[in-house]
Amino acid sequence: MKHAYPFTLCRKAVIATMDTAAFNLELLANDPWLSDPRNIVQLELTSPAWVGAPGVSVSVGAPAQHSALGKMKAWTAADVRRFLEAADLAGPATSLFANGMNGCDLTAVTAATLTNDIRMSAFAARKVTARRDFFLAA
Questions:
Q1: Residue 125 CA to chain centroid, in angstroms?
Q2: What is the tens place of the pLDDT at every residue in 12-50?
Q3: Spatial distance between the Cα atoms of 52 and 128, rounded to a whole number of angstroms
Q4: Chain-centre distance for alpha carbon 33
Q5: Do residues 76 and 86 lie in contact, with contact meaning Cβ atoms separated by under 8 Å?
Q6: 89 with 124: CB under 8 angstroms?
Q7: 0.85 cut: is pTM over it?
Q8: Alpha-carbon distance 73 to 15, whole Å?
Q9: What is the dihedral of CA 119, 124, 130, 131, to 10 degrees?
Q10: Share in percent of the chain as helix, strand, coil (round to 5)
Q11: What angle do CA 116, 120, 121 make, to 5 degrees?
Q12: Mean pLDDT of the 116-129 span
């Protein structure tokens, strides 16, 4: 999954391909060059990026997997952390990641559960559930 081109208009090209299970996704936030949104283009493929050989079937996920709810349920704990950090909720993101909350958990969690079981402040719990609800409504 590596691609290279013989020329570039900017004399510097970096092409990185990865999935959400990649271990180095933090570089998108920490690396000086990759963290600048002017330097990256992020694409989410919702269907196969290639066509298999004749006789080989490529399965596409069920329509429910392409909904916001289906996408969120498929998230890992690291995906939940990135989702919340992108919304300036780094503290709650760290707490939920430490407790192993994945996307399936996030879809079902209530503010009461966050305050009682994870010991999150009521304010932070409301912010987390509001961010989740906003994503699911979009």
A1: 20
A2: 555 556 566 666 777 777 888 777 777 777 666 666 666
A3: 41
A4: 20
A5: no
A6: yes
A7: no
A8: 28
A9: -100
A10: 45, 0, 55
A11: 105
A12: 94
User: What is the Cα–Cα distance from 106 to 36, expressed in whole angstroms?
Assistant: 29
Structure tokens of 3?
A: 């691609």
Question: Do residues 59 and 40 lie in contact, with contact meaning Cβ atoms separated by under 8 Å?
Answer: no
- Which residue in the block uniquely carries the two structure tokens 């009682």? 116
Residue type, 79: D
d(C-alpha 109, C-alpha 125), whole Å: 10
Confirm if 113 and 92 have CB atoms less than 8 A apart.
no
**DSSP state letter for 65:** G
Other CB atoms closer than 10 Å to residue 100's CB: what's the count? 10
Which tokens hold the place of 60?
């596409």
